[in-house]
Amino acid sequence: MNQKSIWILIITIIVVASIAIGGVFLWQSLKVRNIGKVSKVNTPENVSENNPKKTPETTPEKTPETKLVSRKIATIENLYLLGLAFSPDSRHFAYSTKKQGKVFMVLDGKEIGPYDYVYNPIFSPDGQHLAYRANKQGKWFIVLDGKEMGPSDDICQSTFSPDSRHFAYSTKKQGKVFVFLDGKERGSYDRIYGLTFSPDSQHLAYRVNKQGKWFIVLDGKEMGPYDDAYDLTFSPDSQHLAYRVNKQGKWFIVLDGKERGSYDRIYGLTFSPDSQHFAYSAEKQGKVFVFLDGKKMGPYDGIDYFTFSPDSQHFAYNAYAYEQRKRFVILDGEEVGYSSDRITDVLDFPSSSFSFAPNSKYFYYYLLIGNDLWFKVKELK
């Protein structure tokens, strides 16, 4: 064997060895990544004594997720999309479609129906329930988890409670509007608006009209009469209910059934995050005031935003003085600065001119002084 042949042999051995070693590394990489391998999810069908379900002490089991893929769901002949809805957990998808002159609700690919019309699919907050409105032969039904409730002349409103355990809706029949909670009728009125569950899902409030007068109904108990009523607001702990009402041309705040007022207008109302404080703004004789736990602050020419700090210990708002062309930032009842009213032209939203830090330790606000925009920081105690 000459020297040239020896070098060819050596080079060949090196190339073969390199390929072999590279193949080993590639195979290990494929095993690690499970490329080309489909792992089974532990379901009742494939869990056995020889294939035990993983426990938290070993490898936590991953909850199966619905994989959404692009696909055709309708043609121009059967297009009837009066509602598309994802469940809040993104695991379910519902829409309506038309087939051979009839309409179906499609949930995760399964058709429910047929109906003449169907629309407004809504999922419960936990994603486990689906409700929608459907029409058959001129009559309307609420359909909850595939079960029809009705018939009625029209469906007015429907809503789930925050904990997804309760469902309320209103229907119209023979000129009257009826309220239903968990399938049980709760009363009939001329009009019903604003079905509202408390945050803890234990209370249901709404406003109704009968014989030209307005009432607030809380857990079946009527409060009123009023000439008008708006803004049903529960406290975060669900222990308080506030709203605004009109009586003989004057506006009042009603908190836990007790009236506060009277005013020419009321602009907003809110509870602190811990539910221990209550604030609103109101206008009287051309001036606007802010009320915090019954204490009046003002007067001002206008108020455009007020809020509590996350820990509920501080309260801030913006106030206007039109003649002075000033916009004030008020923190805990004291003015911390003012801007030219042109700040609303500089910032996208008036409410963005101040904010509390998430930990409530700092207060941030903007001031427009001349042509200079300042970002201010105040440490809170």
Can you offer a commentary on this structure?
This protein has 381 residues and is mostly beta strands. It has a domain of 79 residues. It is built from two helices and 31 strands. The radius of gyration is 32 Å and the shape is globular. The N and C termini lie far apart (91 Å). About 13% of the residues have low confidence.
Present the secondary structure layout:
Layout: H1 3-33, E1 84-86, E2 93-99, E3 102-107, E4 110-115, E5 117-123, E6 130-136, E7 139-144, E8 147-152, E9 154-160, E10 167-173, E11 176-181, E12 184-189, E13 191-197, E14 204-210, E15 213-218, E16 221-226, E17 228-234, E18 241-247, E19 250-255, E20 258-263, E21 265-271, E22 278-284, E23 287-292, E24 295-300, E25 302-308, E26 315-321, E27 326-331, E28 334-340, H2 343-346, E29 354-356, E30 362-369, E31 372-379
Antiparallel strand pairs: 1-2, 2-3, 3-4, 5-6, 6-7, 7-8, 9-10, 10-11, 11-12, 13-14, 14-15, 15-16, 17-18, 18-19, 19-20, 21-22, 22-23, 23-24, 25-26, 26-27, 27-28, 29-30, 30-31
What descriptive keywords fit this protein?
2 helices, 381 residues, mainly beta
Percent helix range: under 10%
Radius of gyration (CA) equals 32 Å
User: Which residue ranges are poorly predicted, with pLDDT under 50 across at least 5 consecutive positions?
Assistant: 14-63
* Main sheet properties: 4 strands, antiparallel
Q: Given the C-alpha coordinates, what overall shape results? A: globular
Give the neighbour order of strands across the main sheet.
Answer: 1-2-3-4
Assembly type: single chain
Share in β-strands: over 45%
Mean pLDDT: 81
How many β-strands, per DSSP?
Answer: 31
Which class of secondary structure composition applies to the elements? mainly beta
How many H/I helices? 2
- How widely separated are the two ends? 91 Å
